[in-house]
Write a structure and sequence with these properties.
single chain, 248 residues, alpha+beta, 4-stranded antiparallel sheet
Amino acid sequence: MSVSRGSGSLRTFSIGTRWASMIAQVVFLGRVLARSWRQTFARRGVSSRPVVALTLIGLVASLAFSVVLVPLAGPASATSPAGTGGMFTPLQARLADTRSGLGGYSTPIPANTNRVYQVTGNVGVPSTGVSAVMLSMTALTPNIAGNMSATSNPPMSCTTTCTVLTWAAGETVSNSSVVGVASNGQIVVNSNYSTEDMLIDVQGYFLTGNGTAAPGGYVPVAPTRIVDTRSGLGAPKAQVATGSSLTV
């Protein structure tokens, strides 16, 4: 016997086989009961035909009842997720270190200067299919207070809303941020007001997928500041006291 590879043909063949098995079991049970009752009534000298007929009718009725009220379940099938975009893949790799020249620059980043880094196809990040990366950025002993921003290349106009970390003079500080990757796979880093050595570590990347976000997947938006206690944006215009909380 040949079986079609189509899913519908396989499903029909599977259901038909199970129905044939059920009918065969009912027929076998009917034959066993009929034979037993014939022998019993023969010893008593009584005709067994009415009882056998009623038994067979009952078995057929039982089978029909099963067909109507208890249909055979079809085979289970896996359901593909609606989308695969935004799924996160963890990774631990150093992308840049201005002390050693890793990443293409061997000098501290000058104030108000953009530096371009290739992310995709580098340090374990795929060459294609990446929408954003999770970065950890560290400023090493800056000469004055300042901040560092990161965005895709070509850069967006967001030196303040793309800020990754802020520091005081002489303070070594790091912070993590999700940074969008442009179609060329590059990001731009900018340091305002100060000159300092810098580290960039990749902690993972987000997939572009099939263009539709996966359940719980990352969905990028344009950088927008929602809270600034200096101006009263999104919160009271006041410093947050030690040990207190702020509802956003």
